[in-house]
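Trying the structure run again after the queue cleared.
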Amino acid sequence: VIYADWLPGYGLMIIIDQGRGYMTLYGYNENLTRKVGDWVGAGDTIAHAGDSGGRRSAGLYFGIRYNGKPVNPEQWCSRRVTLPPIASH
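Done. Tokens:
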């Protein structure tokens, strides 16, 4: 984890250095479960989606950067992935 804090326009943001110039970004979170310097692995919870950053409803900002430039995440995300239902509070 290279960033875990408030970022204007994105709310609570966590950024993970994936190595080889790649970073993944996750914004609009309700809370963060990791801090700068933490290592994370596949399946680890890093945050809980929310409505921070001025959103009217809960959601998630997801982005990929390569050497600081945006990359279309479609090539990295399988369309066959089924997300579990969001539990109500």
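The chain has no helices and six strands. Worth checking whether this holds up in the mutant runs.
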